[in-house]
Design brief:
Layout lengths: L1 E5 L3 H12 L3 E5 L3 H9 L5 E3 L2 H7 L2 E4 L3 H11 L8 E4 L5 H7 L8 E8 L19 E5 L6 H14 L3 E5 L1 H24 L13 H7 L6 H10 L1 H24 L2 H21 L1
Parallel strand pairs: 1-2, 1-4, 2-3, 4-5, 5-6, 7-8
Antiparallel strand pairs: 6-7
């Protein structure tokens, strides 16, 4: 199958690798000619385009691997260039605000399937792409009334080929709320923990696995995460308030030196964590 990719960053490059391993013919467009050359030289893609118009003329099934604000700009500026019948598979980390903005744009005779591959690295760019990040990972497809069943089925099939294990179909609101909890505030917590230490002693000389695990994602793509934090603020602030409430409960019992109440809070997290493991 011939498949196009717009945006050869970490996710776009990794998707290209995964699809190419399954014998699909992959072409790509990116503003960065160096990224295109890297992908061609390493056989990540079969064909590169530096002209977007030419790319769109030659591709009717396209993975759109851009930042949320760039996706909106892409459709606003280039909607008139898109061939009727083109299917876009979008892969950003927020949905409600994105879909709301795209629905304001006149895009007749094309279909956008909103998805989210739950995978990544702390490093970005085509040079760090690796399709193994998708193996046994989760993939979310938004239940969107404008999507045709056969195109959603195709999207699921391609996700499975790339290596995703669990594929869920949910509303945009559920996606944004759950991702605020499982991803967005976890990144905020990691960043805040790193930023809270400003002493001269090299903390790494005193850090164990717990610190390393918790702060791995503090090394971040600031453009991407600014986009996510601001565009999913409704659900992030909700989840952040609940987290701060729980943190304050722990702080209170530590201040009060109340071992009984502190143990209850600790055991609560043990029980919940075991429950989630059983579900998996």
């Amino acid at each position: 199958m011939k498949i196009g990719i717009i945006g050869l960053g970490l996710i776009g490059g990794s998707i290209a690798q995964g699809l190419k391993k399954n014998n699909h013919k992959i072409s790509a467009y990116d503003k960065d000619s160096n990224s295109l050359k890297y992908a061609i030289d390493r056989n990540i893609i079969d064909e590169s385009f530096e002209n977007l118009n030419d790319f769109l003329k030659n591709n009717t099934l396209v993975y759109l691997c851009l930042y949320p604000h760039d996706i909106i700009s892409f459709f606003k500026i280039n909607g008139h260039l898109i061939q009727p019948g083109t299917i876009f598979i979008e892969v950003s980390g927020i949905k409600s605000s994105l879909i709301s903005e795209i629905e304001k744009i006149d895009l007749p005779n094309i279909e956008i399937i909103y998805t989210h591959p739950i995978a990544g690295k702390e490093s970005s760019g085509i040079y760090n792409s690796d399709c193994s990040i998708f193996e046994n990972s989760n993939y979310i497809i938004i239940d969107y009334f404008k999507n045709k069943k056969e195109n959603v089925a195709l999207t699921k099939k391609l996700a499975e080929e790339i290596g995703f294990n669990k594929i869920s179909v949910v509303s945009m609101e559920i996606h944004d709320d759950l991702l605020a909890y499982t991803s967005h505030i976890t990144h905020l917590i990691s960043m805040a923990l790193v930023n809270s230490y400003d002493e001269e002693i090299n903390i790494i000389d005193f850090a164990g696995d717990s610190y390393k695990d918790l702060t791995r994602i503090a090394q971040n793509n600031s453009i991407l995460w600014t986009d996510i934090f601001l565009n999913n603020s409704k659900y992030i602030l909700k989840r952040l308030d609940l987290f701060i409430e729980e943190l304050n409960l722990l702080k209170k019992e530590i201040q009060n030196k109340d071992s009984d109440k502190l143990k209850i809070l600790l055991e609560k997290s043990n029980k919940l964590k075991k429950k989630y493991k059983k579900v998996r």
